[in-house]
């Protein structure tokens, strides 16, 4: 399977993606815990059906020490006992922030309060930016039908 577009060869995409990659790096360096970042990136990608991002974030999380049990349970995190309350709050915010078209209210006050209970303002900002960033990345990859399976951890660092 070949992608519809080669973002790395296109001059316009190259200019724009330089800033996107820089934003991704800034998010990685944020005070939001790495495990939370990878779990959120994975969950957003699962919701959107972005195979290349699921591949990437599953492998990055595993390389960072995440267990296969937790990775396998991200899609059913509500029923799983392996996530902290803070991670559950981040996953809830990620889901509501990703499914804004499904609920006219967007992120509910209850989900926001739950996340605010576990994260300070800088971490909350990073979390909101990460959810938004992942939704954009998912859409870029889904529209171009980027193939999945070949990602190597650290490939874009």
Folded structure, characterized:
With 157 residues, the protein is mostly helical. It has one domain: AhpD-like. The chain contains 7 helices and no strands. α2 runs parallel beside α7 and α5 packs across α7. The longest helix is centred in the C-terminal third of the chain and has 24 residues. The protein starts with 10 loop residues before the first helix and ends in a 13-residue tail after the last helix. The mean pLDDT is 94. This is Carboxymuconolactone decarboxylase family protein.
Number of strands: 0
Secondary-structure-based class equals: mainly alpha
Number of helices: 7
| Poorly predicted parts | none
User: C-alpha Rg, in Å?
Assistant: 15 Å
The average pLDDT score comes to 94
Please, how many domains?
1
CATH architecture: Up-down Bundle
Would you state the CATH class? Mainly Alpha
| Broad shape | globular
Domain Carboxymuconolactone decarboxylase-like: 16-96
Protein name: Carboxymuconolactone decarboxylase family protein
Organism: Streptomyces dengpaensis
List keywords for this structure.
157 residues, mainly alpha, AhpD-like, globular
């Amino acid at each position: 399977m070949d992608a519809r577009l080669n973002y790395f060869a296109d001059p316009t995409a190259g200019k724009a993606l330089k800033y996107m990659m820089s934003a991704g790096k800034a998010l990685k360096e944020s005070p939001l815990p790495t495990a939370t970042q990878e779990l959120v990136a994975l969950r957003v990608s699962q919701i959107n059906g972005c195979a290349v991002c699921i591949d990437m974030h599953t492998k990055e999380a595993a390389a960072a020490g995440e267990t296969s049990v937790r990775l396998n349970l991200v899609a059913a995190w509500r029923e799983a006992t392996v996530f902290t309350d803070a991670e559950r709050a981040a996953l809830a915010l990620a889901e509501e922030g990703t499914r804004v078209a499904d609920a006219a209210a967007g992120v509910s006050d209850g989900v926001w309060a739950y996340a605010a209970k576990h994260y300070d303002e800088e971490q909350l900002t990073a979390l909101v930016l990460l959810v938004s960033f992942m939704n954009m990345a998912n859409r870029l990859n889904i529209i171009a039908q980027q193939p999945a399976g070949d990602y190597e951890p650290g490939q874009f660092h």
